[in-house]
Amino acid sequence: MWIKNELKRQVNFLALWLASTVSNLGDGLFKWGLPIIATKLTSSPGLVAGLTFALTLSWLLFAIPAGIIVDRIDRRQLMIRASWIRAMIVCISAVAVAMDYFALPVLYLSASLFGICETLVDTAAISIVPSVVPSKKLEWANTLIMSGQTVTNEFIGPLLAGTLTAISITLTLGSSCIAYLIAAISLIFIRGSFKSTRLKYGSVITDIFEGFQLFWHQKLLRTIALLAALMAGCWSAWSSILVVYIITPGPVGLSEFGYGLLVTVLAIGGIIGSILVIPTQRILGRRKILLISFVTMSLMLVTPSVTTNTWIIAATMLLGGIGSTMWNILVYSLRQHLIPSAFLGRFTGVSKFITRGSLPLGSAIAGIIAEIANVRMVFIFSGVISILSVILFLKLITTEALDEAEKQICLS
């Protein structure tokens, strides 16, 4: 019986890992391909940044409802259905391009619908992990999942997006569609029920209140989320305008393929970060790794404001990739350890509302600054705010608070 259960658990995790990895390949193709496509339609940095706003607005509007949904229905089934819908959205976009009905409004609509599905899939994916692997293996599981996401979303995805878009926009979108179809099929092989363990359900208003109440009472996770929101908004501002800065006629002057290569440096950093996170945490502790992560991300965000040298920008992107991956693995694991499974969807929804809700705000501010001033001012803005977040981290995230969290993890 033990062997049978262990085999089932291994198969379930493998299917979840494969679905997450392939789904993120689709994300990488779609998200990194969209700005490249937009530069073919407009030279306005504000309109290009608007695509990131459309993609991420759902985290501000839909993250909390997504958390409630995740805690009410089977999380695996939700991920399957959302993957089918994402495949359909991208497929329709590809058909629209093939029929030469290709305009910015089509891109904005596709990005908005895609973003809603992403809130559901990402919230469910984080919440389902503790049901697939035992508590003592959460860091290991999150490391493998994050490694797969990094390789496909930030390495293969951008590289393929740049290459395929140079050949055919339809080819980029079609490849993304196939990735989502494979992800949905992979999830079918996960066996078992993954519905929340709640015994009864209250009203939607009650669920929203419980999610915020739990979020507020978790002081450490609440503070981490608020700091992450500052950094995420800066990252969004940086990434939404980066394509205009990098690709010709931007100051750096790279081709679309060169831009794809540059962005893959983030993924290389992510792979390194996923390899280093567990051993470095054992040596330095969780707080120091989180602090180092914030510092590396801040360095990446501010660098384009002071240089157009491709190699220097790439070096800081490597460090940023290392830092962001280590941060995500440690924070996701901490949340999964400290929050009961029955509440994990709602807590994740509120947490994502705070952290990723800053993404559309960052991209909107980036578009405004770029239109009023210039693109370089966006990087100055991102750098200053991100450095401020590092200072706040030093003051607010204490060693004592993290030590207390580690004790709770040991007792769980």
Automatic annotation (TrEMBL):
Any GO MF annotation of the entry: transmembrane transporter activity
Residue ranges of the TM segments: 12-34, 46-70, 82-104, 166-190, 224-247, 259-277, 289-306, 312-332, 353-372, 378-397
Keyword entries, A-Z: Cell membrane, Membrane, Plasmid, Transmembrane, Transmembrane helix, Transport
Family annotation (PANTHER family): INTEGRAL MEMBRANE EFFLUX PROTEIN-RELATED (PTHR23513), MAJOR FACILITATOR SUPERFAMILY ASSOCIATED DOMAIN-CONTAINING PROTEIN (PTHR23513:SF6)
Source organism of this protein record: Trichormus variabilis NIES-23
Pfam families, A to Z: MFS_3 (PF05977)
GO annotation, cellular component aspect: plasma membrane
Species classification: Bacteria, Bacillati, Cyanobacteriota, Cyanophyceae, Nostocales
The protein's name in its UniProt record: Antibiotic efflux protein
Annotated ranges, domain Major facilitator superfamily (MFS) profile: 12-401
Record carries keyword Aminoacyl-tRNA synthetase: no
